[in-house]
Design goal:
The complex is a heterodimer of chains A (about 170) and B (about 110). In chain A, about 30% of the residues lie in helices and about 20% in strands. Chain A has helices at about 10-25, 30-35, 40-50, 85-95, 120-130, and strands at about 75-80, 100-105, 110-120, 140-145. Chain A has a four-stranded antiparallel beta sheet. Chain B has about 110 residues and is mostly helical. Chain B has a two-stranded antiparallel ribbon. In chain B, strand 1 (about 20-25) and strand 2 form a beta hairpin. Classes of the chains: A alpha+beta (about 170), B mainly alpha (about 110). At the A-B interface, strand 1, helix 5 and strand 4 of A face strand 2 of B.
Chain lengths: ~170, ~110
């Protein structure tokens, strides 16, 4: 698996290390090494290299807001935007702390899909009415409020050996 | 000299202070109004669900009072909530209320100018 923009590839061991880190990023190099049957120093080298090339972007914490006592609602906004302005709209949405994810999608019309969190339906509406609707290029907005969350995880890398380039390029 | 209240009520406000028409929480119709005259025109154009949504939340009176600074019209719009009107009857009554106010304001301004 070639790393975009860099002159090196991920092999099956790298992929396995990433999968283990996605389960729990606090595991030690020794634990990971034991699980994969390789030396902890090898795990260390590979992780450092993946950090250096941006394959591993950061280590963060998944918080269960409900258990933490924080009452929030989540909504998915679908914004129909003028194609000439869509990049600007998406960039501005990215700067808003209430918005946690932003995507563009092309179906019949150009759409921007964004995930929003707010304290209540009222604050959600206020935010969309005062901060999103007035953005130049926003034509219409459809919002769906999430009523129940069934799953939320980080996407796993598909560890398909046929797709993995095991012929590593020399350092 | 023009009366300040009438001039304020008929002013055009910047985009960030315009009224944005929604049909429900977070569902923006794409229609907005930056002045009372434009607001009056949009009443006849937007989905009637939007009028029901905003009237009974108090959004219209809030915008008219806080942004256009027309307390008199805001009070009239607030009274409409008590009628429990919906659908086209609401559209008609709201349009009547706003258009009557626009005409009055225009008349006042013309009389100051002459």
């Amino acid at each position: 698996m070639k790393v975009k923009g860099n002159n090196f590839s991920l092999d099956s061991t790298d992929i396995k290390i990433l999968e283990i880190l996605q389960e729990d990023a606090r595991q030690t190099y020794t634990t990971i090494g034991k699980r994969l049957g390789i030396a902890h120093s090898t795990v260390y080298d590979r992780i450092k290299r993946m950090e250096k090339y941006g394959v591993i972007k950061k280590y963060t914490t998944l918080i269960d807001a409900e258990k933490a006592g924080v009452k929030t609602i989540t909504a998915i906004m679908t914004i129909i935007a003028d194609p000439k302005e869509s990049e600007h709209v998406a960039e501005k949405l990215c700067k808003m702390p209430q918005i946690t994810e932003v995507y563009t999608s092309l179906s019949e019309e150009l759409q921007i899909i964004a995930k929003v969190t707010a304290e209540s339906q009222e604050t959600l509406h206020e935010f969309i009415a005062t901060a999103v609707a007035p953005l130049p290029g926003v034509l219409r907005i459809r919002t769906s409020i999430v009523t129940k969350k069934f799953k939320e995880t980080q996407p796993l890398i598909i560890n398909d050996p046929k797709k993995v380039n095991t012929n590593r390029e020399p350092k | 000299m023009k009366n300040e209240t009438e001039v304020k009520a008929l002013k055009t406000v910047p985009k960030e202070k315009a009224f944005y028409f929604f049909t429900s929480i977070g569902n923006y119709t794409g229609e907005s109004a930056s002045s009372l005259k434009e607001f009056m025109e949009k009443i006849n154009e937007v989905n009637v669900k939007s009028l029901e949504f905003h009237l009974y939340r108090g959004d219209f009176e809030k915008w008219i009072n806080e942004i256009l600074e027309d307390g008199e019209l805001a009070a009239e719009v607030r009274q409409l909530q008590k009628t429990n009107l919906t659908g086209e009857a609401l559209r008609h009554q709201l349009y009547e209320t706003i258009s009557r106010r626009v005409k009055n304001l225009m008349c006042h301004i013309s009389s100051y100018e002459t």
